[in-house]
Amino acid sequence: MKGVAGSTSFPPDDYIVSREGDPEFETGFLSREEVEAIFKALPLEITYADTNNRVRFFSESNVSGGFPRAKTIIGRRLEQYVAINVEALKTGREKYRVFWTRLGDKIIRVLLVAVRKPDGELLGVAEIAEDFTEVLNNPGEIFEKILVL
Q: With a threshold of 0.70, does the pTM exceed it?
């Protein structure tokens, strides 16, 4: 019967989402190459420190140059100012903290967030740095670009 809902003439889809060696995440699969490319494509930068306040990871954005970093920060302790604020996140008193800073002509928003397992156990803390210069310098222009989705 033609035109019946649910009937199609498309061949069965045999696409396999997970490839050999792909890490499995709660919401899907990505290769290491894809993960690294996604981090570089984001218009923000992320630094991750474990529960010992040691930097274990940072991303470098191809879109927005946030804080200049070198690979030598891996393994270093968090700066004292950051470490003090991290304690409020570790204890659960706060879910995140927001800071604003200048880097040359840029105005950077920095979020510190606790990273936890589903059961609430602390894994570490992420620092997310995002360039807000355009938003803060051109609020009228930004409001004109707002889309209702």
A: yes
Residue 79: band (very low, low, confident or very high) from pLDDT cuts 50, 70, 90? confident
Structure token pair of residue 82: 């950051």
pLDDT tens digits, residue range 5-58? 565 677 888 888 888 888 888 999 999 999 999 999 999 999 999 999 899 999
Element (H, E) at 142: helix 139-145
CB 49 within 8 A of CB 112: no
Are 112 and 125 contacting, i.e. CB atoms less than 8 angstroms apart? yes
Tell me, what DSSP letter sits at residue 64? -
Amino acid at 97: R
Domains of the chain are: 45-145 (3.30.450.20)
| In contact, 89 and 96? CB cutoff 8 Å | yes
